[in-house]
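Structure in, sequence out. Go:
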């Protein structure tokens, strides 16, 4: 009898221990879920948002987290892989791509305002908007080559409000089903938030086919190289513009201002501004091999012979800089035999 009582008590104790363990795991899980749900942002009427509204069905977990479509930033040079642009590698259900898989938002070409709902604020680098090109294949996985940039805003590390509105001009030269990819690139991390928007486009008869330069959101109003941001973390090979000069990161760095860390700091001077009225450059004793730069104003398209000419037989790795056709090019990854400038999404990035 005593053995039976002891056995029952032992079973009850074991049951209580198991129950306590389950309770603790549940608390941890829901705590992590709540913490994750406190981040980040989505575009109103995006593919993910319409999943949350159950307009799009069978979407997977993104139904509860349309604001968490987060992946590697610095798109398109780095970013998430082709075929995973909509789901950013974390919500693969969003990457299904056929002509009739997703509900579509009716939209006209011309002026349009995109609305981001921000759940948790992040210091912002850029807000970029891409659209599929005329003739794209809606039944193939979405890839970089399908897209073209049509709108950009740069925030230089600012914290956005809870509602962000970006005025853009949607290309007024295409109709039917297209995908717009909105990318919120974060300044204080290496990530970005991706939002695919499925639209049914029509021509706006009251808007021009091509707007005049300088329209709201015109991506060409900025240079190819972004200004250095003291908040953002940079990795080896990344290029920035600071005080009229172009700098390349030698290694991971954050908050270290280019030009102030000395010869052995994290930043390497790639090219000056082309403004010979800045006399301090030729007088720096640490650069005796560049005395002729300010005296050669007639050759601005030859940015410096200190970089080797590109060779089709040479292997280049990420961060290496070469001279080709009077311009400097930086390898974004391993490459051999690929001509700089031949492919917009190729391995070479124009430095100046």
């Amino acid at each position: 009898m005593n053995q039976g009582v002891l056995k029952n008590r032992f079973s009850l104790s074991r049951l209580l221990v198991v129950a306590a363990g389950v309770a603790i795991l549940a608390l941890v899980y829901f705590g992590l879920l709540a913490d994750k749900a406190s981040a980040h942002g989505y575009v109103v009427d995006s593919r993910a948002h319409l999943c949350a509204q159950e307009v799009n069905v069978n979407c997977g977990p993104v139904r509860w987290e349309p604001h968490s479509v987060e992946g590697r930033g610095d798109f398109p040079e780095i970013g998430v892989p082709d075929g995973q642009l909509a789901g950013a590698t974390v919500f693969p259900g969003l990457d299904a791509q056929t002509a009739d898989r997703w509900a579509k938002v009716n939209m006209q070409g011309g002026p349009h305002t995109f609305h981001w709902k921000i759940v948790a604020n992040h210091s912002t680098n850029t807000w970029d908007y891409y659209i599929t090109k005329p003739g794209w294949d809606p039944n193939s996985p979405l890839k970089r080559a399908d897209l073209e940039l049509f709108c950009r805003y740069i925030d230089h590390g600012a914290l956005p409000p809870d509602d962000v509105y970006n005025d853009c001009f949607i290309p007024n030269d295409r109709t039917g089903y297209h995908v717009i990819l909105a990318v919120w690139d974060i300044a204080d991390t290496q990530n970005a938030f991706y939002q695919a928007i499925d639209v049914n486009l029509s021509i706006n008869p009251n808007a021009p086919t091509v707007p005049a330069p300088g329209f709201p959101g015109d991506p060409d109003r900025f240079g190819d190289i972004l200004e250095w941001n003291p908040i953002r973390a940079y990795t080896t090979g990344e290029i920035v513009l600071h005080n009229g000069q172009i700098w390349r990161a030698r290694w991971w760095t954050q908050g270290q201002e280019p030009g102030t860390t000395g010869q052995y700091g994290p930043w390497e001077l790639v090219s000056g501004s082309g403004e010979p009225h800045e006399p301090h450059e030729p007088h720096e004793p640490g650069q005796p091999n560049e005395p002729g730069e300010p005296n050669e104003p007639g050759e601005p398209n030859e940015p410096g012979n200190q970089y080797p000419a590109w060779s089709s037989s040479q292997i280049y790795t990420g961060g290496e800089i070469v001279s080709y056709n009077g311009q400097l090019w930086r390898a974004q990854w391993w490459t051999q035999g690929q001509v700089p400038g031949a492919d917009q999404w190729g391995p070479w990035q124009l430095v100046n």
